[in-house]
Specification:
This protein has six helices and seven strands. With about 230 residues, the protein is an alpha+beta fold. The termini are far apart. The N terminus is likely disordered.
Length: about 230
């Protein structure tokens, strides 16, 4: 907890110097995962040219990270609700290792507003990060969800590793239900499939490329059968 307080004070001083105060909460427990995830997503934000939410003055900004996917919902200065879906893939091909291939989709205003209202109603922002939830276990495999919340005076960064692997833990069930509804509302699974199969071949190692293209053929066959 001391490390969490330390980073909070540093950011408060920094923002006060510019006549602003923004409370930034980023857990940095030495035996937790959240601090590592923050560093990693900060790197991705720079590569993807995302808004730095620790410095954002937007009235409301929500960013959800899924594996290879980031979804942004925010309220602009005119109180319009906007949204954007960004798929990305970090190259594993030898010649372009680490290069990111990405694609952005604007969410239409109706879906953006519905998603915004769902986020508010869910109160997901009141849930602690995984490091603060007793009984939440980590691991090497599985899906990771990261949630960033920002207002003009507050910012929080929270991570949740594989809610489905946490048994009947109350908080895990809340996260899992939220994710299911969120993904369904924006059709994120289908969007992610279409993006994955559009990635240029040279972004993959040969062993992965063969399997990807095999899956791609099955997916295209399935899609054509629905027409």
């Amino acid at each position: 907890m001391k490390e969490t307080v330390k980073i909070l004070i540093i950011f408060l001083i920094s923002f006060s110097a510019h006549c602003q105060e923004k409370q930034i909460t980023i857990p940095t427990y030495t035996n937790g995962d959240t601090a590592y995830y923050f560093k990693y997503t900060s790197m991705l934000c720079k590569k993807l040219k995302f808004t730095d939410l620790t410095q954002s003055t937007t009235e409301f900004y929500f960013r959800l990270w899924n594996p290879g996917l980031a979804t942004d919902i925010w309220k602009d200065k005119d109180s319009n609700i906007k949204g954007e879906i960004t798929n990305f893939y970090e190259a594993e091909g030898e010649k372009i290792w680490g290069k990111i291939y990405s694609n952005k989709i604007q969410i239409d205003s109706i879906d953006a507003k519905k998603t915004y209202e769902f986020i508010l109603k869910s109160m997901i922002d009141t849930l602690p990060t995984e490091d603060d939830i007793e009984g939440w276990s980590g691991g090497l495999d599985g899906e990771l969800y990261i949630i960033e919340f920002s207002t003009p005076n507050k910012y929080s960064f929270k991570s949740y590793w594989s809610p489905t692997a946490q048994g009947k833990l109350k908080e895990a069930l809340i996260v899992e239900k939220f994710m299911q509804n969120f993904n369904k509302m924006l059709n994120l699974l289908d969007i992610s499939f279409r993006f994955y199969y559009s990635i240029p071949d040279d972004y993959f190692q040969q062993c992965l490329l063969k399997e990807r293209n095999k899956q791609k053929k099955k997916y295209e066959k399935k899609m054509n059968s629905k027409k």
